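Input (structure):
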């Protein structure tokens, strides 16, 4: 059974390679007849039908921890230090905790208000610098900030994040951490 799956995977790669080669041939610089071009471009048009069958690079599977509904360590280090790596790491850590807060967690509203202010301050300050705004860590963190801030705006600070949104945020936090470790 494994052999059949491997054989099908190899066959699919051959089909995809043939599609790519024929697509490249269709767009060669040498003049070609309209009919030839249309015939070959039909193969290119068919490639979106095949692309769902391609194995895509899997994003790291992230384990979503249980929501916190009991006492938790409330940070005292809110605000920016104006050193990007430190601030990005701190905002990420604070967002990680905010994402994990469940219904009935003590100080959830106060945490959410501090979190939203810190996120707004972070984005407002660092997006002005092209050297920082172009970093993958900033881009991914900015996306996560928009998700969490949007949740606070729509549902308030007392309502916990839905499971699907939490999972996506934890994936983004993992990407931010990887990017920061690489200095990107």
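Output (sequence):
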């Amino acid at each position: 059974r494994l052999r059949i799956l491997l054989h099908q995977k190899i066959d699919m790669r051959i089909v995809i390679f043939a599609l790519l080669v024929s697509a490249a041939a269709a767009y060669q610089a040498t003049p070609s007849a309209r009919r030839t071009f249309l015939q070959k471009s039909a193969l290119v048009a068919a490639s979106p039908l095949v692309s769902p069958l391609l194995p895509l690079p899997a994003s790291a599977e992230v384990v979503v921890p249980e929501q916190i509904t009991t006492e938790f360590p409330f940070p005292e280090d809110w605000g920016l230090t104006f050193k990007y790596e430190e601030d990005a790491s701190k905002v990420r850590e604070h967002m990680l905790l905010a994402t994990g807060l469940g219904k009935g967690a003590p100080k959830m509203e106060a945490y959410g208000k501090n979190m939203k202010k810190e996120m707004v301050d972070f984005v407002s300050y660092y997006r002005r610098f092209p050297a920082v705004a172009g970093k993958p860590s900033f881009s991914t963190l900015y996306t996560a900030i928009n998700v969490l801030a949007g949740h606070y705006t729509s549902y308030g600070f007392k309502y916990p994040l839905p499971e699907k949104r939490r999972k996506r945020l934890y994936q983004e936090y993992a990407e931010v951490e990887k990017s920061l470790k690489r200095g990107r």
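Notes: Confidence is low (pLDDT under 50) at residues 1-7, 50-58. DSSP finds seven helices and no strands in the chain.
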